[in-house]
Amino acid sequence: MTYSTLISAAELKSRAQYLNLVIVDCRHDLANPNAGREAYAAGHIAQARFAHLDEILSGPKTDAAGRFHGRHPLPDRQRFVEAMRALGINNDTQVVAYDAHGGMFAARLWWLLRWIGHSDVAVLDGGLAAWQALGEQATAEVPPPAAHGNIQDLTSLVRTVDAHALVENLKSQALQVVDARAPDRFRGENETLDAVGGHIPGARNRFFKDNLQADGSFKNATQLREEWLSVIGDPHAAVMQCGSGVTACHNLLALEVAGLGGASLYPGSWSEWSSDAKRPVATGA
Questions:
Q1: Residues 257 and 232 sit within 8 Å (Cβ to Cβ)
Q2: d(CA 98, CA 105)
Q3: 3-state DSSP call for residue 240?
Q4: Phi and psi at residue 170, in whole multiples of 5°?
Q5: What does the alpha-carbon distance between residue 124 and residue 7 come to, in Å, rounded to a whole number?
Q6: Is 242 in the active site?
Q7: pLDDT per position as a tens digit, 126-154
Q8: Angle between helices 221-228 and 247-257 (to 10 degrees)
């Protein structure tokens, strides 16, 4: 048995010895880029390895021509594959990603592995807190370097769209854009991360935290499906975005849990869109 969306802490505990497993700690703080590494050093799930959002799960903010692609562009595909090999990931590895933030960073690794065609990747439902709730202790012991993995760059299991496609969509309205940011930022209020507040015209707002229960675990598939069908119609005609392409992956994970797979990611998201004054901005609800 393999896991391709979520894995519960109880399942991880009971099945860890039967899985060809690599656990990856994805903790991060957008306001303090060193926080995730420091948290990992202080204590993590035993044998877990660390993947930094900025260094491994994202690429340079600008390209060789100086064009800005957002705060967390996709990494170079081959460099990402090499980084996954360095973590010891093979083509047949079950990867489990976790964080302490409701899955908001772990979902980015989940999506990126699917981007390179690896389906056996799941987010630990409820994160580190769910693991510790079972009585499992975090450890500061860092595992020895992994044997180099052999994961390959295979056919992508996910889709993306770029800013040009969404500019064209302003006229056609063929795609439903969904913004994962908090409602106030969507409305253009209290913007602290990007230079311009607001949202892509025509976008709807589905705050990624609305995918979660009070304890930080995901809502069940039935509830997620019901809620998401009030936001989108055909998921294949939906595009997920957020501030920089990270929490949009959380919405994509929720859609997969709900059985509504097929939506695309706009990797540059609001940080890229708003960087070009020629692109229109909407505010309010």
A1: no
A2: 8
A3: strand
A4: -60, -30
A5: 5
A6: yes
A7: 999 999 999 999 999 999 999 999 999 99
A8: 110
